[in-house]
Amino acid sequence: MELIINTPEEMFELWKKMAKDHKTILLKWDLWAGKTLFTKGFAKWLEIDENSVQSPTYTYLNSYDNKLLHIDMYRLENENEVWEKWINDQISQYDYITIERPKFIELLDIYEYTVVNIEKKWETRIVRIENQQ
């Protein structure tokens, strides 16, 4: 599926709608394309205060109300860090997960997920969504 998103509000609403049908989402796109905004919409659907959602780029992962796990794998340099950061242990404790800039997916205990690619074109975003099993 491919969508054109023109405003941050449209992005937020799309992710809010997606959350009901997609429990694990891999977010692949450029800087400043809306990864954290995506997770804010996802959180809103789960009745989590979206203002509490922060980028986990430096912390690797953030948990929200024991409902949503938000991971950023950008800074992982090798597969050993998946184990050192306890990422798999955290994944097994959550029903809803968003993973920004995923790496080493084959090491994670996730079996069904949705891949979201966003291409930034000036102020517009081209969103491509595909399910994986």
Keywords, separated by commas or semicolons:
133 residues; alpha/beta; Rossmann fold; 7-stranded mixed β-sheet; 4 helices
Please describe what this structure looks like:
With 133 residues, this protein is an alpha/beta fold. It has 4 helices and 7 strands. The protein has helices at 8-19, 35-45, 80-84, 87-91; strands spanning 2-5, 24-29, 61-64, 68-72, 96-100, 113-121, 124-132. A 7-stranded mixed sheet has the order 1-7-6-2-5-4-3. Helix 1 (8-19) packs across helix 2 (35-45).
Summarize the structure.
The protein is an alpha/beta fold and 133 residues long. It has helices at 8-19, 35-45, 80-84, 87-91, and strands spanning 2-5, 24-29, 61-64, 68-72, 96-100, 113-121, 124-132. It starts with a strand and ends with a strand.
